[in-house]
Each structure stands twice: as structure tokens, then as C-alpha cells.
Amino acid sequence: MRRNLIWPSVPSGVVPVDATGSPRPRRRPAQATWVDLVAPTPDELASLGLEFGLDPLLLESLSRPARRPGFAMYGDAGVLVVYAATPRAIAERSGQRHVSPVPPRIGRPRGIDAGLPWLATRRFRADQVQLVIRDDVMITARGGPVADVEAAWDRWANQCLLAHPHCGLPAYQLLDTIVDTYLPILDSMVEEVGEVERRLLDGNIDAGKALDLQDLFRCKRELAQFGRVVGPQRAAVTALWRLSHDLVHSEAPSYFQDVADHLARLAQNVDHYHDMLESTLNAYLVLVGNAKNDIMRRLTSATILAGIATAITAWFGNNFPAPEFELTFGYPLAMALTVGALGLGHAYLRRRGFI
Prior knowledge:
The chain has nine helices and six strands. The protein is an alpha+beta fold. The protein has two domains: 2-14 and 25-288, CorA soluble domain-like (Beta Polymerase, domain 2, 2-Layer Sandwich); 289-351, no CATH class.
């Protein structure tokens, strides 16, 4: 499916006038075009290449269903591959289930919309958007509905009436919309990271559950996957910013730098929270190790006390004749000696902090 948005344009009911107020002939100004492609067919790509004189390698890249984020130049046009992240709850409410990053089950055929296993996460759905940028044309190619593209399209359609005929500003608005969507996703991850950290470190170690560790490793995995989305896009947008002077002739290069800075800060935050999870895991393992050491210390103390009682009772249990065995109070003496030795041993071990 294809749709076009052309600017600048003059409404049909408006009659241009000159400085004296008299009507003047309508002139068609230089225009720019935004072409939006949803699941493009080879015929649509071929006609698009003929219409705008695009490089065949560029058209071939648009036909790939799953590519890593990156930027490449093809003649006088650049191709930027980015991923729009949609929170799972929003995607399910809107009915946009065309891309499911959940890995397919064994024996299940995997098609173009079966998802990307290297971006699998239950928190957000990643949709590939390929952006072709040239001064007079901007092309977006995607496999299905993407909320960020629709929002940028509606936003630009309402303000492109008198816009300059270049594609720098709509490209910036689209990238800025995609990057802004990352923020609530990262915020939700941060909230869960804090909750998992509180449950693991503030509670009783003996009451630690396997589910808490599963949540911690799931947070680590989701942060890693989010970093695999943000990190490469940071490098791609930085490359676009450095080469944007050859693509668009406007103030857009400085705007692309702003998007690159936002991605850089997001990447730094992802690394920071990943390190925080590593520290939480290490602290939890230290606490668990200390708890095990305390248990072993208690067991060792109990073994020592049992050894004292065993040594005394074993002596009095021998079957050879001894003077103390003939006494009438020999048995009470043995019990008293055993209890006294156990009391002294317990007091000593308690004073040294073993029990």
C-alpha cells in the first residue's frame, strides 16, 4: 500500500496576488514528497525507483523484511533503518499484532511477520521502519501499522501547507517521535528494577523466592534487548547527522544531532541500569553466601558441642573397672559433668559469635 504527502501546497480556494493586490498566475513551486509504503510489493518498489530515479541497491534494501539498525548511502539518497518500540499493552489494545517478537514454537513456520528473535521481549514490540532521505523525497517502508509513523504523518500533514520544500524537518519529526516512545518503556523498566531490588535486598534472605531471581534476570534480558535497539540506532543517527548536509539543505542537520544526543543519553541510562542490576545480583549473592556461612557456623558449633558430650559419655561407657564407676553417685556425676561441659562450650562459642 502506498500513500503520498506533497508540500508545500496552496488550497484550491486561495487565489495568489502580487504586491499591488491584483491576481497573478498560479505558479507551481518546488515541492517535496513523503511516500509511505506498507508491505511494499516488488512492482511498487520498481515504479517508485523509476519515478524518483532511485538506486537499484536502495530498492533492494527496502525489500528486506528484517535488518539491523544502520545507515547507508546509495547515490544521492540515504537509507536509515530504525525500530519503533511500542509498549505491549498499547499494541494489544490497538490490535496491532502483525509483529510478535515472541520466538515461534518448534515446528511452527516462521514468516515475514513472525517476529525477530533477537528482539524478543514481553514488554515492547519492535517494528522495523526504513527511512529513505533525499532533499526532495522521503520514503518510509514498513511491514505493517506503526503508531509512531501514523502520529508523525498526521502531525506533518497539519503543518506542511507552507513548509519549505525539503525533507529534513519531517524526517526529524519522525525520528523524534520514535525516540520519545522509548522513554516510557525505559521508565517502566526502571520501576520494575527498583521493585526487584527492594524485594531481593530489603526482605529476609531466608524467604527469598526463585521468582524474584527470575524477575531480576528477565529485567536484565529486557534491558539488554532494549540496548540492542537503542545502541545501533545511536550510531546510525549519528552517521545520518554527519552526512545530512549532503542529503538535505536546511537546518535539519542540527535537529538530527539532537536526536543522536537523546539516543546517547538513553544508551547511557541502559548501561547504568544494567550495571545496577549486576550490582544487585552480586549483593544478593553475597547475602546468600553470608547466610550459608552463618548456617555452617551454627552447624559446626552444634557438632563441637555434640563432640564434647560424646567424649564424656564414651568415657563413662567403657566396660573396664574404674574407681569412679563403683561410686553410687557416679552416674549423676557423669550427667553433671556433661551438662557443665556443654554449658561452658556453649558460653564460649556464643561469646566468640559462632552461635
